Amino acid sequence: MANRREVPGIRQYDAPAGGWGALKATAEAVRDQMASVKAPITLLRTNQPDGFDCPGCAWPDKEHRSTFQFCENGAKAVTWEATSKRVTPDFFQENTVSQLLKKSDYELEDRGRLTHPLVYDRATDKFKAVAWDEAFARIGEILRGLSPEQVDFYTSGRASNEAAYLFQLLAREYGTNNFPDCSNMCHEPTSVGLPKSIGIGKGTVSLDDFDHCELIISIGHNPGTNHPRMMGTLHEAARRGVPIIVFNPLRERALERFADPQNWLEMASYGSTPIASTYFQVAGGGDAAALTGIIKLLLDMEDMQGNVLDHDFINTHTEGFDAFAAGIRSTSWADIEKASGLTRDDLDKVAVAYAKSNATIITYGMGVTQHNKGTANVRLIADLLLLRGNIGKSGAGICPLRGHSNVQGNRTVGITEKPSESFLQGMENVFGFKLPRHHGRDAVRTMQAMIDGSSKALLCLGGNFAVALPDSGQSFPAMEKLDLSVHVGTKLNRSHLLVAKETYLFPCLGRTELDVQESGAQSITVEDSMSMVHASAGKLEPASEYLRSEPAIVAGIAQAALPGSKVPWKELVADYDRIRDLIARTVPGFDDFNKRIRSPGGFRLPLPPTERKWPTATGKAIFSVYGEVQEDADLLGGEHVFRLITLRSHDQYNTTIYALDDRYRGVFGRRDVLFMNEDDLAACGIEHGDLVDIETSVSGRKLRLEKITAIAYNIARGSVGAYYPEANVLVPLDYFDKESGTPSYKSVPVQVMRHPVEN
Ligand SMILES: Nc1nc2c(c(=O)[nH]1)N[C@H]1C(S)=C(S)[C@@H](COP(=O)(O)OP(=O)(O)OC[C@H]3O[C@@H](n4cnc5c(=O)[nH]c(N)nc54)[C@H](O)[C@@H]3O)O[C@H]1N2
Ligand SMILES: Nc1nc2c(c(=O)[nH]1)N[C@H]1C(S)=C(S)[C@@H](COP(=O)(O)OP(=O)(O)OC[C@H]3O[C@@H](n4cnc5c(=O)[nH]c(N)nc54)[C@H](O)[C@@H]3O)O[C@H]1N2
Ligand SMILES: [Mo]
Known about the structure:
Elements lengths: L16 E2 H15 L4 H7 L27 H10 L4 E2 L1 H6 L2 H5 L3 H6 L2 E2 L3 E4 L4 E4 L2 H14 L5 E5 L5 H14 L13 H11 L8 H6 L2 E5 L3 H4 L1 H12 L4 E4 L5 H4 E3 L4 H5 L4 E2 L3 E3 L6 H19 L5 H7 E2 L1 H9 L3 H8 L3 H13 L3 E5 L1 H4 L4 H14 L9 E4 L6 H6 L8 H11 L11 H10 L4 E5 L3 H4 L3 H8 L4 E6 L4 H4 L4 E6 L8 E2 L2 E2 L2 E4 L4 E5 L13 H12 L7 H6 L1 H11 L6 H4 L6 E2 L16 E2 L6 H8 L5 E6 L4 E2 L2 E2 L15 E4 L1 H7 L6 E6 L7 E9 L6 E5 L24 E7 L5
Parallel strand pairs: 1-9, 2-3, 6-15, 7-8, 7-13, 8-11, 12-23, 13-14, 15-16, 16-17, 24-30, 27-29
Antiparallel strand pairs: 4-5, 4-17, 9-10, 18-19, 20-21, 21-22, 24-31, 25-26, 28-29, 28-31
Helix pairs in contact: 1-3, 7-28, 8-28, 9-21, 15-18, 15-19, 15-21, 18-32, 24-26
The protein binds ligand MGD (2 copies) and molybdenum atom.
């Protein structure tokens, strides 16, 4: 380390996460994006009972009242939307689409908010302003000329329950269940895996459980960056003496040391609290093996000393234990250690701590789901909890950290390509028309259909579809083969610029903005990671007088595409209470919806597992059988094969890049780096700061990323890390979890070689 060469933009970051650094970064975000007078008022209205929901993440607040001013990344999310910068039709007059496509998403979004509805004009290669009704009429005409199976309806998880509900209604009345959504790239393994295990695809813990737990196991998530308000919860638990065991290939600063900006003593004394009591640098994609190892040790402990498993719970509430246990016992330690990158001794420490705890919470994120075994990973976490009855009791449970602030709500109100029969029946009873039964396409399948030409039109309620998906080399050109693309968004991104034969760009109100319809100011609703549904009311003056709300845009398209529609679109948009009444009549758990969201904090949707009721096919919780540790060891433990993990930086929200720094990881002003373990660098004859080329080794296509700077980092041996979305060129489109369809964004087998020296 001492004589390591200097690499531009790479420095050691020694401070704790949070603390004064976070306050400084908050002030900078405000200064760069907003007029400073407006900013404090805006920020103080975030997550207040009468204010708007933070668009940053889906972590809940106690009584929905956060001391938001100290959440650095929440402040970035809000200021990024409430920016004073604008992208007007003049901007498009000055720039052709081909020129704009050469810019990064960072440069594009930093230009500010879209102000006018736009249509692409092929003759000039420019976007130009269009009247809303003219645009809707043309889109309606094109949709009426296509058959429903040729059209896909994408949702990104920022959309409100009201907008998402209307969007699924439009698509289903039109005749399709083609609902690719961001969840397909994110927590789909949770939505698919947990129903098989416990009967519902959602987490079971509430914030109160964190006050009563005795152990937290955190697997594959980076809350200091992605769920900063969770740090307050972890911080409290750590100070209460609760052990926090972390599994993460990278040493993430916030999980090691965190100074809570709300704790004045810590701030004044420049102190911080250690978060993780034990930190295991599991190999990328090695969690199934690690969990198998822990469970194997627990089974051994039970054989030797008894009193480890909760037999009453297992007998009364579960099934499948014997097959599960047999599968675990037959897995070899050699394979477990090779695939997980951890030793039996490491895993023994976890098993002992787990056996001692009377109430354990397991939290997890993308490090668990974004693998070709994502669903199996999720189910193994549930298995581990079931062994000691850690579901449906105080202080215990499973806690998936959702992504977008309303991705969970979107699913609840019907954004799914595989709707249940009961949901469709309920809708038919209320609306009086037939709904399509055949399952539709998810995100990857939509992209495959666009590539092979069977999908002809894509309507996106938010997001950056092509940039978020794997294999940009294929996904980008596929967008340009479509007959029609329609994007509802707040800011310009590259998916908008990959224009189809006809492309429309619709600017919408954001979460922070006042939404006035015929009946007056409207509020929308969202559901957080813990199934709490609450209202959110924007307060700011809209970025432009031409903006429309998402429900209004969806209704506009619907009226034009479905002339004989049985849905009273106009009336619904006039008063969102009417949309909520329809949700209450068609989606279980929303009785008295309008009344209940008017109480501060909202209400919790039913979660039967919290009462030890299991809505699975058999009425019991079900253990899984995972027999693939050997396969993992062979594939990912192979010589000269690295597991590529694609990562978010601290200054990024998915494909939205706020700035080019990643402070906690010591990267400043750049994103073109590959994090590598020092010993792996040495073994490959690569030096810290050398240029390398990366090539995927599991694809029929040649997927390559060249001239990336390799840097020494504290990451598990055999795993390498690069930033998303730049590294998406390396992720194969067809390398996904078979059960959930989620791409393997966090364990792509790759080779890394030194870039040839140019003469
Ligand atoms: N500020 C900010 N907030 C966000 C987002 C954002 O981009 N920026 N995105 C939102 C969205 S949509 C989502 S889904 C969430 C994402 O939040 P997270 O789930 O935290 O997602 P990531 O940052 O992609 O990766 C999480 C961690 O997984 C670790 N990891 C990678 N591979 C493995 C593995 O194989 N095993 C284990 N155990 N760990 C692994 C990585 O080192 C990283 O620390 O955050 C949401 N909130
Ligand atoms: N390699 C790799 N790829 C990944 C991931 C990864 O970890 N690695 N993570 C995956 C995950 S977890 C996710 S969730 C997806 C994210 O995929 P998406 O949800 O599709 O992408 P975002 O970057 O969140 O979308 C940003 C755009 O949303 C629009 N937007 C912002 N606010 C609003 C709003 O209020 N309304 C509307 N209509 N539009 C708005 C803006 O125009 C902005 O440009 O990416 C996935 N892709
Ligand atoms: Mo996500």
